[in-house]
Amino acid sequence: MTIRKIARLGEPILRKSASPVAPDALGQAWLQTLIDDMVETMRDADGAGLAAPQVYAPWQLCVIEVVDNPRYPNLSPIPLTVLINPRLTPLGSTHDVLLDEESVTMYEGCLSVPGLRGRVSRPREVRVQALRPDGTLMDERWSGVRAAIVQHEVDHLHGTLFIERADSATLCFTREYERYVPLAERVVDGRAGT
Ligand code: NI
Q: Read out DSSP for 77-129?
């Protein structure tokens, strides 16, 4: 496995829409190598997720995992998940404005925007449809932080970064985030405890 270079803010590939992975690519060596390298790269960089365009691969593919992550010390573990050609559908009411109880709000970061955090609100529950590397179909409901992370990663597949979604007044550098953003405000699940 190889740790790949991560594209940083300003690289044109981060602004392009990724192409679907062809079904006949499943099981091919190049795709498995890419997946393995993405997992290795994500873990090495302490990321909670990584999308293929972030390693200069223009495919609709992302990986997600949270295990004792020093960049996100207060998150519950999320098992390693590989999503190919993912499609997300927000669940809940279809208001123009996201209701607090139907949102998850967290200070997101991104390996392609190193050193920066910003508060983003997203639907707290999404339907996740994707292909797994073995070709089986995933169709699940994810909620809370896991839902926020998968939305962040799938945004990458459409050329969108969290800084467009963030409340710009909350953007901050890592040092100031750790110093001034209280733990209780870093992740707020609108339906936590209900
Ligand atoms: Ni990112």
A: PEEEEEEEEEEEEE-S---SSPPGGGEEEEEE--TTSTTEEEEEEEESEEEEE
Give the residues across from 123 on adjacent strands: 103
Active site residues: 153
Per-residue tokens: 124: 């707290």
Ligand 1 centroid distance, CA of 149 (Å)? 9
Average pLDDT in the chain: 94
Predicted confidence (pLDDT) at residue 194 exceeds the cutoff of 90: no
Say what the pLDDT of residue 187 is. Answer: 93
Rounded to 5°, the CA angle 165-80-16 comes to: 40
Amino acid (one-letter) located at 180? Y
**DSSP-H helix ranges across the chain:** 29-44, 144-156, 162-165, 174-180, 183-186
pLDDT value at 163 more than 60: yes
127-149: per-residue pLDDT in tens?
999 999 999 999 999 999 999 99
25 alpha carbon – ligand 1 mean position (Å) = 25
Cα 194 to ligand 1 centroid, rounded to whole Å:
29
- Give residue 109 CA to ligand 1 midpoint distance, Å: 7
Kindly tell me if the per-residue pLDDT of 70 is higher than 90: no
Judge contact between 80 and 62, C-beta under 8 A: no
* C-alpha 168 to ligand 1 mean position (Å): 17
- Note the pTM of the prediction, 2 decimals: 0.95
